[in-house]
Amino acid sequence: xxxxxxxxxxxxxxxxxxxxxxxxxxxxxxxxxxxxxxxxxxxxxxxxxxxxxxxxxxxxxxxxxxxxxxxxxxxxxxxxxxxxxxxxxxxxxxxxxxxxxxxxxxxxxxxxxxxxxxxxxxxxxxxxxxxxxxxxxxxxxxxxxxxxxxxxxxxxxxxxxxxxxxxxxxxxxxxxxxxxxxxxxxxxxxxxxxxxxxxxxxxxxxxxxxxxxxxxxxxxxxxxxxxxxxxxx
Length: 233
Prior knowledge:
Order of helices and strands: HHHHHHHHHHHHHH
Number of helices: 14
Distance between the termini: 48 Å
Number of strands: 0
Strand content: under 5%
């Protein structure tokens, strides 16, 4: 069977783009740079088709990974989303993750990359900690989104892996940038919703950072406490 190549996928994306959608996405803080305005349902369907074709032939050639690299290099926003949806996490290198995270310019691509690809790689926990201390807005966001998505997706991890994230949350909760503080809050909430033990520890952290003079820290803490105190296990 002939696999779709990068050129064919980009052609499909262009055909399904919408300038009106680009304008609507911009109102939600999504960069309009190199953006075609293709909706997520279409992108998910396209990615499913690619993965189904690869699975049928056991993807012995690394087709998904090679395709993902080419799609990412196109610099088209939606092509990059398809790239993170189709790539094989077992073939992702640390260098690739560093390169891709440095390219991030929108919260939606950041979240898709972390929740569909980066959190399934062997480097996920190290990068969550490392990126959370970086200065760049979307790299720092990626660190905390990784913490949140790992808390949801990695069912086999022990509590200690997430308790180790709390010092980073306490340190960076004073960052006033909207896309950062929301990710810090997300990480704290998801860790605290994982189980009873982590809920207790996350609430302790939230009450500690609530005493900060930082408006960001107070918001992160207050929002997390409201949700975590109502969580039932």
